[in-house]
Design goal:
mainly beta, 16 strands, 315 residues, two-stranded antiparallel sheet, globular
């Protein structure tokens, strides 16, 4: 029973967790989740709310909510954070990630930026005994009911960005590798948070004045010699509508669609599961909505801020 609970907690962790972030299918709309070095690099302030339901119709399947934002708070300094809640069967994880980044201008026009970022996370783990059914009424795994454990950790990232064309970054999560007895048994089960690395990059190709092709790739490596990769391609129309597909190695094929209306961006993705669990579920659903707050540098790259020019008389 102890091993069973440990497997549930670790293997069904949420998309906002450092170890499982690649399960978030629309991470390319929030670079900060993948690399703290990207914090505050946008020329507006995004406030993004996301919801993911993984493996629909599968009993105890993970459900994740996250709220995140980041901004350039001072000259060449970015700050941001994410608050998340993840429920998977009887386990629940709630926490916060705080990121800070320093942006280095590689030339005067600021077309090339290099971000160096640090992140700190604090996660609360809990087990709900009311959702557990055991053969033994005195099973030690559920005697203590809710068992809360706060787990701190840290992350680091280097992120290079070329205006709104290309980007590449390398990041590492779970640097502290904290060991915690998540269930607090008399004979404890220790769960090391294994270091996880991400190589993330992409490039946007202008096909015409109205169409842009966005490509991205992410490689995840865990020190337990586990490697996974994602590749994504999106076709964007006038920066107001997009659709595309993603492939997650041995796990899922993803369809994505979204758009922007004024300062509001929104997106939806559906994961068709390729692994054996696909026999028992009807895929995964994910949605996000983002409010973009303008700054003094926003008008140059945020199309909706230029809307009044259409009505301005020519002089």
């Amino acid at each position: 029973m102890k091993k069973f609970l440990a497997i549930i907690l670790i293997s069904t962790a949420s998309a906002v967790s450092a170890q499982q972030i690649s399960l978030n299918s629309q991470y390319l709309f929030n670079d900060m989740l993948v690399n703290p070095g990207a914090t505050g690099m946008k020329d507006y302030i995004p406030i993004q709310l996301s919801f993911r339901k993984q493996w629909t119709n599968f009993p105890g399947s993970p459900t994740t909510q996250a709220l995140s934002s980041d901004a350039n708070v001072a000259n060449n300094i970015g700050f941001g954070g994410t608050v998340f809640n993840d429920v998977a069967g009887p386990s629940r994880r709630t926490g916060i990630n705080l990121n800070g980044a320093y942006h280095i201008k590689l030339e005067r026009s600021s077309r090339h930026l290099l971000g160096l970022g640090l992140g700190f996370s604090l996660t609360q783990h809990a087990i709900d005994e009311s959702k557990l059914k055991t053969y033994l009424p005195d099973d030690a795994a559920v005697l203590r009911g809710y068992n809360n454990t706060l787990v701190p950790d840290a992350s680091f990232g280097i992120f290079y960005k070329f205006i709104d064309k290309g980007y590449v970054g390398l990041s590492a999560f779970n640097l502290v590798q904290t060991n915690r007895d998540l269930f607090d048994f008399q004979n404890g089960i220790y769960n090391p948070l294994v270091r996880t690395y991400y190589l993330y990059g992409g490039y946007n190709f202008d096909l015409s004045n109205t169409f842009r092709l966005k490509t991205s790739a992410l490689v995840q490596g865990i020190e337990t010699v586990t490697v996974q990769f994602d590749v994504t391609t999106l076709l964007e129309y006038k920066k107001f509508f997009w659709f595309g597909f993603s492939y997650r190695h041995t796990d899922a094929v993803v369809a994505m669609i979204g758009g922007q209306a004024g300062p509001v961006k929104f997106g939806y993705s559906y994961d068709y599961t390729l692994s054996d669990i696909g026999r028992y579920s009807s895929g995964s659903h994910e949605v996000f909505i983002e409010l973009q707050l303008s700054t003094k540098n926003s008008s140059s790259r945020t199309p909706w801020l230029k809307r009044n020019r259409i009505y301005s008389p020519k002089i």
